[in-house]
Design a protein that fits this description.
The complex is a heterodimer of chains A (300) and B (205). By secondary structure, chain A is α+β, with helices and mostly antiparallel strands. Chain A is built from 5 helices and 22 strands. In chain A, β4 and β5 form a beta hairpin. Chain B is globular. Chain B has a 6-stranded antiparallel beta barrel with strand order 1-2-3-6-5-4. In chain B, 17% of the residues lie in helices and 36% in strands. Classes of the chains: A alpha+beta (300), B alpha+beta (205).
């Protein structure tokens, strides 16, 4: 029999066995449990969208024993939630390197049990912003099946090392993996503060194309801006005097042509600081200083 | 290294193709089957063939034949063709499968020529004892015409008979269950086709 095929098969089974020791079921919603990864002693990371209740959460160990878990924090933006499970005496996940992940690498997605699916990394890319407003350090798209309950489980390389957390909650097209750098950053913030702070202006914005004459008149290099379609009266921009119909064209001198540009400019470190907003109002260019607020938690 | 993986897969596909047959059940449907023994014993799904069937071998020889044993609960049926010695499947131990082991399904979806799909063992459910109701659960694409066809491991050994898809997971009847089904069928044949499970004693031969 062919030895290359046999060793590939052995490697895959070995990778499941190795990584599966740190994989638990997370029971935080009705019906289908989701999956969690023992990230560091007593801390389990899972996908936020699978956590539908904030109390009476349990995890189930690979041997079937349940343990109570407490929600330490959740970040819908990156679809990550962190649970504290003080009595969890399982090995923690052995981490690989998401950065070395290339298109075409054979990978496994693990669910509790363990159960597994296999496939390849189908695309990698740079930093991106999720539709839920979070910032993810690296794009890792997967060509594999994320079975029901697999969200929150690990993406595992052929050596059995965890290289990301899988979720179906951030893309309708393909499953993606949240890279280790993002999991590390977000879980640290959730463990210390219970939430991930995000900058907030209190505006609803929509991209618009500016007439060429107007762009020239106000001395703009670009021809796109963001028109204000809603202003929260008590929000940071509302207090700074922004009005419905103003067109935002730059923040701190950086052009903004789409709403992603705003999210990129307003990371957690900007909360409490001042940004200079360049706006066009009634055909006139002007500058407004806004003190960045913190986005209020989503109502559930 | 890379060419040997590709060659290995191609060789495996060719070997499985030879032990896979097309099955057209009378009044049921079409699917696939596995040559289980060189004497012409073929295993398929009960939902593919329950009474009469046409079997087409990989060399295109066709046989009209009766189903000699059928177990709708385990979704298994056995057929016998008189075609001389045939290339038979190597049978694997379905109880030894591990999650992540590679598996390959060969069959005749859409009535066409043999297709190969590759995947892995999706889950192994632990039970205290052997149970006829256990499945081999696989993360592999299968279509209706795969029913009755082989699921094989990286050694090329048959470890299951593809039966259905549930929640996107391919379910196959484990090879060990197939072996029990065939030995039950043999025992019934020796008893003169009584067709009922025994109660622990046998008529002297």
């Amino acid at each position: 029999m062919d030895s290359t095929l046999l060793s590939l098969s052995d490697n895959l089974a070995g990778a499941v066995a190795r990584a599966g020791r740190a994989v638990v079921a997370v029971n935080a919603r009705r019906r289908v449990s989701s999956t969690g990864v023992h990230w560091r002693p007593g801390v389990v990371v899972t996908a936020d969208h699978t956590v539908r209740m904030e109390e009476e959460i349990t995890i189930t160990r690979p041997d079937g024993r349940p343990l109570p878990a407490a929600l330490a924090g959740r970040d819908p933006g990156t679809d990550l939630a962190v649970l504290r499970v003080p009595d969890l005496d399982l090995p923690v996940a052995e981490l690989g390197d998401t950065g070395s992940c290339k298109v075409g690498h054979i990978v496994l997605a693990l669910g509790a049990g363990p159960s597994a699916s296999w496939g390849v990394v189908s695309a990698v890319g740079g930093r991106w912003h999720t539709w839920r407003g979070g910032e993810v350090d690296r794009l890792v798209r997967l060509d594999l099946v994320l079975y029901p309950g697999f969200s929150g489980g690990p993406l595992v390389d052929i050596d059995g090392r965890v290289i990301g957390i899988n979720t179906s909650g951030l893309s309708r097209v393909t499953p993606v993996a949240i890279p280790l750098a993002t999991v590390s950053r977000v879980s640290d913030e959730l463990l210390t503060r219970g939430r991930v702070a995000r900058g907030y202006l209190g505006l609803a914005l929509h991209p618009v194309r500016l007439p060429e004459a107007l762009a020239r008149a106000v001395g703009l290099a670009t021809r796109t801006g963001l028109v204000v379609v809603n202003v929260e009266a008590d929000g940071p921009a509302g207090k700074a005097g922004l009005l419905l119909g103003d067109v935002l064209v730059a923040l701190d001198g950086n052009a903004v042509g789409e709403t992603d540009d705003i999210q990129a400019a307003l990371g957690s470190q900007r909360v409490g600081s001042t940004v200079r907003a360049h706006i066009i109002r009634a055909g006139m260019s002007s500058q407004v200083e806004i003190t960045v607020g913190e986005r209020p938690p989503r109502r559930r | 290294m890379h060419s040997s993986l590709a060659e290995g897969l191609a060789g495996l596909a060719e070997r499985i193709r030879q032990i896979t047959v097309r099955v057209h059940g009378r009044g049921s449907g079409h699917g696939s089957g596995v040559i289980w023994r060189p004497d012409g014993h073929i295993v398929t799904s009960a939902h593919v063939a329950s009474r009469l069937a046409t079997v087409v071998l990989s060399d295109d020889r066709a046989f009209e034949t009766a189903v000699i044993a059928c177990d709708p609960e385990r979704d298994l049926a056995a057929i016998k063709v008189d075609a001389g010695p045939l290339p038979a499947a190597a049978i694997g131990d379905s109880d030894a499968l591990r999650v992540g082991d590679m598996v390959f399904a060969v069959g005749h979806p859409f009535g066409g020529t043999g297709t190969l799909t590759a995947g892995i063992v999706h889950r192994v459910r632990r039970r205290d004892g052997p149970s006829d109701r256990r499945w081999v659960e696989a993360d592999v694409h299968v279509a209706p015409g795969n029913s009755g066809g082989p699921l094989v491991d990286a050694h090329g050994r048959v470890i299951g008979i593809n039966a259905m898809v549930a929640g996107g997971v391919a379910l196959a009847v484990p090879s060990n269950v197939v072996e029990r089904f065939l030995s039950d069928a043999d025992a019934r044949a020796r008893l003169g086709g009584a067709g009922r499970p025994g109660v622990g004693h046998r008529r002297p031969a």
